[in-house]
Design a protein that fits this description.
Blueprint: H1 7-26, H2 39-43, H3 57-67, H4 90-102, H5 113-130, E1 137-141, H6 144-160, E2 170-175, H7 180-188, E3 196-199, H8 209-221, E4 225-232, H9 244-254, E5 257-261, H10 272-277, E6 286-289, H11 291-294, E7 302-306, H12 309-316, H13 347-357, H14 359-381, E8 386-393, E9 396-401, H15 409-426, E10 432-436, E11 439-445, H16 453-470
Parallel strand pairs: 2-3, 2-4, 4-5, 5-6
Antiparallel strand pairs: 1-7, 6-7, 8-9, 9-11, 10-11
Helix pairs in contact: 4-13, 5-13, 6-7, 6-12, 8-9, 14-16, 15-16
């Protein structure tokens, strides 16, 4: 079989895939939100030996539809309200397909001037939305984890370039509600695990800025070097927003790099509510964003904005002999701003979706998600057997079943674990759990634009039914 297919064959295969994806998305409500298999069950029907000869495309698609596709959570499903879901628009999916089909190499400017210009446009949109100063910039990444790691490496480089031994004295400060990727990024940047300081959060799960200032001062007195503070603009656990302006004041006074993790919530700044809640984000040295969350594009698409992009270039720029042909260009080589040389054009899916729908439609979808979460909170508070643990914030609500008369913490944990297992097993809705102050809680996160108020009633109906089955 020739690897170079003719036009008619490419069209036929492409239309089959287009129909498959479109039919999947159009029928989501008829499918379960979640289904899984054990590793043994999932591997059993798959042939581990690569075929010596080719296979008909119809047979390949049939195998995927039978043995692979059904056994996964459906992130764009209206009932997927676990973790932080991704719900891409169809134009964004097409943008991803175009970028992959053209196979743009977006690492250096000369070989992808057009696609890289789109990335600069998208980054400029982000800069304006966040209110960061002119000249701020960065790059698109695989996700928030890579963006935060890139920022902390730049912050580290600023301090240790002239005195590498100082790395042993560096400290980073994060809330006890920070995303796990933030702590992992500090480890990967070479900091001692003992020097990643967890700053306690207040009753609203927000970083205590006064305690932050105290810990930084104590570390300086002990001969350590405060490197960076990572604040959250909508935590994954509860949607809480750290006091960004107060933390920015501490960082300015102490001359410490301020990074803000706005991975899932950041694009809510397009709304009035988000703009008020994120006051101070424009003062950050760097910000993590995830378009594959609340900007409705497919995985993988994160983003990093830096107040001084030159700090990124200082940390990552390298010019081997085999890249000498791209040296000296005044245009931006994105490979100089992060870890990837070979990188594809993530900008196209963002640009295409925003251009197709416009910012107003995206703003309305974000506002709608927050309103649906508030509706869930209202419904939950009206039930005698449900306790709201954390109110609706940026789409997140934490709650638990708490039947009257049941007060033993271990019994409440057991009840909620059993309720979660039964709701998820049913497959109609996919919810998750967390712990708040060491209390087991159920959690929903409404980001998808397909999820509505009726789904919120449905989640609580499933919870009620599960509770009836497991109550003592």
């Amino acid at each position: 079989m020739a690897l170079d297919l003719d036009l008619a064959t490419m069209r036929r295969l492409g239309y089959q895939v287009t129909d498959l994806v479109a039919e999947h998305l159009a029928s989501l409500r008829d499918q379960p939100a979640f289904a899984t298999r054990s590793r043994e069950e999932a591997m059993r029907p798959l042939d581990l030996a690569p075929p010596e000869d080719g296979t008909e495309f119809d047979a390949i698609l049939g195998e995927l539809q039978r043995d692979v596709f059904p056994f996964a959570a459906r992130e764009p499903h209206p009932g997927f309200v676990a973790y932080v879901p991704s719900c891409p628009t169809f134009p964004a999916v097409l943008g991803d397909w175009i970028a992959t089909g053209y196979n743009f190499f977006a690492g250096v400017w000369p070989v992808a001037a057009g696609p890289n210009a789109l990335e600069l446009v998208v980054l400029e949109w982000f800069r304006r939305w966040l209110g960061m100063p002119e000249g701020a910039g960065g790059l698109l990444t695989s996700g928030g984890s890579q963006a935060t790691l890139t920022a902390l490496i730049a912050a580290r480089h600023r301090i240790v370039e002239e005195e590498p031994a100082r790395i042993a004295r560096l400290t980073v400060y994060v809330s006890d509600q920070a995303h796990s990727s933030v702590i992992r990024a500090a480890w990967m940047a070479g900091l001692s695990r003992a020097h990643v300081r967890l700053i306690p959060s207040d009753a609203g799960f927000r970083m205590d800025s006064r305690e932050l200032a105290r810990v930084i001062a104590a570390d300086r007195a002990a001969g350590l070097t405060p490197m960076a503070v990572v604040a959250s603009a909508a935590t994954t656990n509860t949607g809480a927003v750290d006091p960004l302006a107060a933390i920015a004041d501490v960082c300015a006074r102490e001359e410490v790099w301020l990074h803000i993790d706005a991975a899932y919530g950041g694009f809510a700044i397009l709304t009035d509510y988000g703009r008020r809640a994120f006051a101070g984000i424009e003062r950050a040295d760097s910000v993590t964003l995830d378009p594959h969350k609340w900007l409705f594009v497919p995985f993988e698409c994160g983003g990093l904005l830096a107040r001084e992009p030159a700090r990124l270039r200082d940390a990552f720029h390298i010019m081997p002999e085999y890249l000498q042909d791209v040296a000296g260009h005044e245009q931006i080589n994105f490979a100089d701003y992060g870890e990837q040389l070979t990188r594809y054009s993530r900008a196209l899916k963002v640009w295409l979706s925003v251009r197709y729908f416009g910012v107003a439609a995206i703003r309305q979808a974000i506002e709608r998600g927050m309103a649906v979460a508030r509706h869930f909170e209202s419904l939950a508070r009206s039930r005698a057997n449900v306790e709201v643990m954390s109110p609706a914030q940026f789409g997140v609500v934490c709650f638990r079943v708490h039947p009257p008369g049941v007060s033993d913490p271990r019994e409440l944990d057991r009840l909620n674990e059993s309720v979660l297992a039964r709701v998820v097993q049913r497959g109609r809705y996919f919810i998750s759990s967390t712990r708040l102050r060491d209390v087991y809680a159920l959690r929903i996160c409404v980001l998808g634009y397909r999820t509505n108020e009726a789904d919120m009633s449905g989640v609580l109906e499933e919870v009620d039914a599960a509770l009836a089955q497991v109550s003592p």
